[in-house]
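Q: How would the structure tokens look for this protein?
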Amino acid sequence: MTKGSNVALTALSEDVGSVIVSLGWVSPTGEGDADVSVLLLDTNGKVRSDADFYFYNNPVAADGSVQLLGKTPTEDGNEDRISFDLTAVPPEVDRIVVAASRYGEARFGELDALQVRLADAAGESLLRFAIDDAGEVSAIIFGEVYRRGEEWKFRAVGQGYDTGLAGLATDFGVDIDDDAAEPEPEPESEFGSPGEECGAPGEEEARSTAQAPAGASSGQPDPTVPAAVPATLEAVPAPRRPDTAETEPTRQPAVRASRPRTAKKKVALPKVTRTSLAENDSWRPARLFPVSALKSDRERETRATSVLLAVMAQVPRFGRRLTAAFGAPSGRMETFTEVSLPHGDTPRRPDGVIRIERAGKLWTALVETKTNGNPLKADQVQAYMDIAARRGYEAVITVSNDVALEGSPLVDVKIDRRRKHKVALWHLSWAEVAYQAQLLIRHEGVGNAARTWLLEELLQYLQHENSGCHGFQNMGSAWVPVRNGINDETLCQGDPRSLEVIESWERLIRQVCLRLGGELGQKVLPVQRARRGSDHGTRRIQLADQLCLEGRLQAELRVEQAPGVLTIGADLRTGKLRTSVEIPAPEQGYPLTWAKRLIRRLAEAPADMHVETLLEGETGGPRGTLERLRPEPADLLPKNTASPISGFRLSLFKGMGSSRGNTESGFIRSVDEAVHRFYTTVVVHLDQPAPRRAAPKEPART
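A: Here is the predicted structure in token form.
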């Protein structure tokens, strides 16, 4: 769902008498968390009483309509589930608000993958709403379930509150007790409190009576309670959160009286500090797929194959994502490892086998994996192609850190044209595997908590430094000689090493697209400035010659919903990376208004970002850093030219790494970080492109 949209629950399932709402998030540090809360509102948008406010110290409604089920751990954070029995909700309740809050100085902008999901009574996921623009707020309304006539509907809200849970609850009529944040009151004098002087119990007296610590009573009867019915102060256990530290108070008093209260009971908001159950920071959570025992490349390959194929079989949607592009049908999948197959005098053992059954027919693929920087072996892949052809299998799938290029296979194999049965050879990069897992976990969902956890464990394994599944991570042996040749001006056109660098650059850009797309949940594709059907080899040779002349590598990325094409350039002479985007000028308004609005939109962008005005028919216009332009946006306007403004170019510069590999100073890491920083600090603040309007149809001539 998108923000503001709504849907009738009965349109999604017939079994919505009770539903489960799940709020989820991911903490990059592994320590961040939030608390859920529920408010039942009447037709005026207010709670009927403070009893309609449910949080972890008030988790269950007496009528069973609301029940907070607690937290389910995920890979980096938690998922909080709430059960609603909609048939038991009182008729005067018009809306049910589902929210979450953080405590202290924590903000939701520090958490990733904020989402709310709703499932029916059978556990089938019906809808999902992701919040991508949480920002610096400490409370958020994720969504609400509300009545429309005789049916219930769900609305995706995503509204944040700077004032936290207190501000949110107060807006809906909950009376919040802020005493916990105030200093302790001084002891009462012998003359009593102001409420006693006027002969009537005041609100402060009622509050202090309800909250006085056990044993604090002086033994004197309460003047506000009839003598025949003395007030009873009994210490009872207070509901505790499961992760509350042992030093927190565990008991609170409860007042029992036969008369009605004269002051409205206050709801005390939780004020706790999250602590880990680990004794020290060196403890690491247990993982389904451990990596600490991996010592050799063979162990890494065996473990990676088993982990990948097992999750593909247990998470059908994930398995389907990886095999659909290879012509595999949608059906029941089984996966196997270390299968022995006859091949001449000695049997062969492919790393894995995938079999899919559909309508009584089998689709089978052999799998060969490599980890770290190990290349695929042509003779090994050739043997598997021959075995697959003889046994009637459909495909051989290779998996490695390398990225395949269009028109340039990673492994050259010979295909016997005399065989009627054809075997396809396909390749997967570990980066693509991680990309598909990210899409399902963070943006699309798989409709099952256990399957989501399996995907999260797979992603955690792939991203671990010891797994060997990090994706393309080495620019090759030609990288350093080409850089030196460009600096020394000794690199000549036609040098085969420059072509190797172009191919490595193309692989890197494809991997950058996968990583950014996985984080955004959007398609990110490289832009190929070549005619359709042109030879890829010829295009790369032309780019290699251009590299020798200019000393620059350049690529363009197209991101869905971005205002323009992202450009990434690497100048090998200066050692600088430049990420930029060109945005068109608005069709209406005045240039000064455009400039002011652009600077306002970039209020949170880096101060060292360059802004350049683009003029029609001219090579360049006024430019400057954002730091200089913020007080004077008019400096972006041309002074001595009549050329109209066609747009603006926004650029960030970064030093590029010196080494060819993905080390801390590596070129690959530098490019990845530059693109990520530019998109998350600049592009996200820009307006999305307006949808294209279809041209009006001309009336038919008669």
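The first strand starts at residue 6 and ends at 8.

Residues 178-266, 691-698 have pLDDT under 50 and may be disordered.

Upvote if useful.
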